[in-house]
Amino acid sequence: MMKRMSNVLIALCAIVMSGCLTNQTQVNTGGGNPAQTQTSSVNTDVSVSLNFRGWYPWGGIQATPNGNTVTFNGKVGSAGYVNENLDKNLKNKTISLKIRNAAASNFSEDRMMKITVNKNDRSVQPHGVEIIQSEYIPSEYELLEFVLPPDFDGKMGFVFYQADLKSLQITMTYK
């Protein structure tokens, strides 16, 4: 009997310790009965799709949205894709852009695009990116991450300058 109780005690300690080490939350559903306690994992690092609904092209660029992915085509002097009505609660959120097929396009002076936010079209510098001419992201980047500013007013856009875009794809998520 004593050996069985010590095994149960060891098992309970292991369960409690694993809950502390794996960022789990235990919820007692009532009655004080341990059998009524449920454990759920909490993951605070989950990316959520940010759809291109409500975005519009300008400057002659062709944009084909599909959920949280958009495909760009066209030979443009200055053009872009913008949304002026994004949720303002996205401020301080990390935006991730996964870029595919950039090598098929031609960019003047290797300037793939710049990212702008707010009504004043302030340029954003993604983490770890050496930008060109204080604004433009070089074409070799396949993943960009940046934090929307605390004063984010709902406007975000991508600007292309002297580019021949050939099925350039951008997939957008946030966390």
Question: What features would you describe in this structure?
Answer:
The protein is mainly beta and 175 residues long. The chain folds into 2 domains: 2-41, no CATH class; 48-174, Jelly Rolls (Sandwich), CATH 2.60.120. 11% of the residues lie in helices and 46% in strands. It contains 1 helix and 13 strands. The chain has one helix spanning 2-21; strands spanning 24-28, 37-41, 48-49, 56-58, 62-66, 69-83, 94-100, 106-107, 111-117, 122-124, 137-138, 143-147, 156-174. Strands 3, 4, 5, 6, 7, 8, 9, 10, 11, 12 and 13 form an 11-stranded antiparallel beta sheet that branches. Strand 1 (24-28) and strand 2 (37-41) form a beta hairpin. It is globular. The chain starts with a helix and ends with a strand. Mean pLDDT is 82; it is low at 1-9 and 11-43.
Short structural summary:
By secondary structure, this protein is mainly β. Helices cover 11% and strands 46% of the residues.
